[in-house]
Design a protein that fits this description.
411 residues; mainly alpha; 0% strand
Length: 411
């Protein structure tokens, strides 16, 4: 097996397992242990997005000039520190500080990881690797769900602590086993100069301006970010408070959330395998139609989740939304990478996409948090309306040529 492909699968297992271990009950941890309100939950997310907005492009440029591998190692190490800090000191100010540290870590990984994988495997193998990694990640998530339910039943901060240690293990694994054979770093006298960084950023912007489809891609990313804060920060709070999840069964809420996550993961694993077998990665029109359909499912899922009269309806809406959202990621990542001709600015262009997403989350987060403070149901309905423009942006057909040359979409 190709060493980079093997590293990708190992990291998919470690990182996604750790993420699910932490986030299965993280909102419950913040609501009950830290004592945060819905607005505070979203404000912490806004701090995260401000950090991403400020750091996304600089870290992407560094990944292009110095080392993608080094950027990824630093990102995992910072993420580990952010979660370990929050587990040790569960207060709102520390949660804000943790969001800053995690945001820097996210930007170190976001553009660098896909760029590293594309460099090592080539864009023609990237789509298959991303979907296979998604499947491995789903298996890891099942392990993370079981671990979160078990550890969280003892203390809600324990999954956060163990998840932080797993992110530290991921950084150590990259240090020992991650290959980087196809990256050519800049000369030593150019590597640390702001002039070279500005040149690389300018080249990345030139790539975007040269391709109108990439500009549209940035718009799609913005609206994906605009709607997402209410969902990412408040969906657990909706089940726990609106439907009084604790009163429905004798089990702790984190156990029920883990069970729900397990069902979602099993459905996602099967759907990703079906997609991997049937999707033609060089067919841009097929990819466009799938992204459009999955986005429409997300809009309907958000509406149903917010307006559900009973918890059963809300759970079905959750499953439909989550599976569709998970499948969109690998499709748009492949589409986006195929649009970038120059590997020297790949991480920078990808980081511009991450910055557009962060701008959307920053613009939508506080208003949606304020709405959620008054009505969680209304927050999800408004989120669905904010996602609607993407259906218009995605409905137009791309040029009829290979996806590596004519990609239009976004994550």
């Amino acid at each position: 097996m190709n060493p980079a492909y093997r590293s990708h699968l190992v990291l998919s297992f470690l990182v996604d397992g750790a993420h699910v271990l932490i986030w299965t009950g993280f909102t419950v941890f913040q609501l009950t242990v830290v004592g945060m309100s819905p607005l505070q939950l979203v404000l912490v997310g806004s701090v995260l997005e401000i950090t991403i907005l400020l750091c996304e492009v600089p870290t992407g440029v560094i990944a292009d000039l110095v080392s993608r591998r080094l950027s990824i190692i630093l990102g995992f190490a910072l993420t580990a520190a952010a979660y370990l800090l929050q587990a040790a000191f569960p207060t709102f100010p520390v949660a804000v500080l943790g969001a800053v540290i995690w945001g820097i870590g996210v930007t170190c990984v976001s553009g660098a990881y896909d760029a590293w994988l594309a460099d090592e495997l080539g864009t023609e193998r990237l789509g298959d690797a991303l979907l296979r990694g998604e499947q491995v990640a789903r298996v890891a998530a099942l392990v993370g769900l079981a671990g979160s339910a078990t550890l969280g039943s003892l203390w809600l901060g324990l999954p956060v602590l163990v998840g932080g240690l797993l992110f530290a293990a991921s950084a150590l694994y990259c240090l020992v086993a991650m290959p980087e054979t196809n990256f050519h770093r800049a000369a030593a006298d150019e590597r640390s100069t702001w002039r070279k960084m500005a040149t690389t950023l300018r080249d990345g912007m030139r790539v975007v301006r040269r391709r109108p489809s990439l500009l549209r891609l940035l718009g799609v990313l913005f609206f994906f970010g605009l709607f997402s804060e209410a969902w990412d920060r408040l969906w657990q709070a909706h089940l726990v408070t609106t439907f009084d999840l604790a009163a429905l069964t004798p089990f702790a809420p984190i156990v029920l959330l883990a069970a729900l996550g397990a069902v979602e993961m099993l459905l996602a694993i099967g759907a990703a395998e079906l997609l991997r077998r049937r999707l033609r990665f060089d067919d841009a029109e097929q990819t466009r139609r799938l992204v459009f359909v999955f986005t429409a499912v997300m809009v309907l899922g958000l509406l149903a989740y917010g307006l559900a009269p009973q918890i059963g309806v809300a759970l079905v809406a959750f499953l439909g939304f989550s599976v569709a959202r998970g499948l969109i990621g690998p499709l748009v990542n492949t589409w986006q990478n195929g649009q970038i001709d120059d590997p020297q600015v790949r991480a920078t262009v990808l980081s511009l996409g991450g910055q557009s997403d962060a701008l959307g989350q920053l613009a939508g987060g506080p208003p949606l948090g304020a709405v959620g403070n008054r009505s969680l149901r209304a927050a999800f309905v408004v989120s669905a309306l904010l996602l609607l423009p993407n259906l218009w942006l995605l409905r137009q057909r791309p040029a009829s040529r290979p996806i590596r040359e004519a990609v239009e979409m976004v994550d």
